[in-house]
Amino acid sequence: MLWMAACALSSAAAGQAPPPQQAAEEVQRLTSECEQGKFASCTDLGGLYAHGRGVGKDEVRAVGLYERACDGGFARACNELGAIYGGSRVVTNDNARAVALYQRACDLGDAHGCTKLGLMYALGRGVTHDDDRAVALFQNACERGDAAGCDALGSRYEFGVGVTKDEARAAKLHQRACDGGDALGCARLGAMFEKGSGVEKDEARAVALYRQACDGGDAIGCYTLGFMYADGRIVAKEESRAAEFYERACDANAIYGCFELGRMYEAGKGVTKDEARAAAFYQRACDVGKTLACGKPKKPVE
């Protein structure tokens, strides 16, 4: 199976929105505490404004709150601010500043900041590409308990980038990441069990890990399950389930999930044929770079 992996440099918060009155009280409490110089509260309040939970979404205000907390030495705020400068439309993209913020977060003891800094070195964003530095940062982060750091280090060993290739070690690191709640680590471990790379081949376990990854919000896990159900690979072919998983992948911003779902609606496979919905999903894929989707549907899928 084709395997696609993506390292996320942005952070996101999950969870259901609290009732309006409770949300208002939370915002009031955090605002008061932030004004008293409690930088954890400033950061939490910034998260509410960044994601529009309990308040109107206001990313500019979120930036101001994160800056206040980061300037006060609160590591998590520096990490959040780095993610904004590294990929947000709220401020001018500034990878060099993102690197400096991740470095500050890492220096202040935020292990996830070390992971993100490692990713910047691995990708050469805002800093000179340096695989050795990336590996050292991932190792540091993993040892300090950051699951994403373990996953990133696992990928280095899996493909032999900056280290000697060691698939067995890679599998152990992905397992550690998955056990620590990193959904992408579960997806990558699933791929290793599917292929029998570094572990004994176990397709049933691979499917279970992809499902765990998808349930944890990982788009690759959802897309892979969609592909499996659409193709009848490892699992029984079931196009309606394929459509379900492709939609979950699309909702998690996996462009191929949007594209494949568009194909299913265009052809009426697993879903009721609906060219308007097909066009909408193709457009979503087009908007984030899947040029093959742009301008579709033009003709029925064979």
Features:
single chain; 302 residues; mainly alpha; Serine Threonine Protein Phosphatase 5, Tetratricopeptide repeat; 15 helices; 66% helix; globular; disordered N terminus
The helix content, as a percent range, equals 55-70%
Order of helices and strands: HHHHHHHHHHHHHHH
- Tell me the β content: under 5%
Please tell me the overall pLDDT.
90
Task: Please give a quick description of this structure.
About 65% of the residues lie in helices and about 0% in strands.
Please tell me about this protein's structure.
By secondary structure, the chain is mainly α. Among the domains are: 32-109, Alpha Horseshoe (Serine Threonine Protein Phosphatase 5, Tetratricopeptide repeat); 223-302, Tetratricopeptide repeat domain (Serine Threonine Protein Phosphatase 5, Tetratricopeptide repeat, Alpha Horseshoe), CATH 1.25.40. It has 15 helices and no strands. The protein has helices spanning 20-35, 39-51, 59-71, 75-87, 95-107, 111-123, 131-143, 147-159, 167-179, 183-195, 203-215, 219-231, 239-251, 255-267, 275-287. The model is unreliable at 1-16 (pLDDT under 50).
Topology, element by element:
Elements: H1 20-35, H2 39-51, H3 59-71, H4 75-87, H5 95-107, H6 111-123, H7 131-143, H8 147-159, H9 167-179, H10 183-195, H11 203-215, H12 219-231, H13 239-251, H14 255-267, H15 275-287
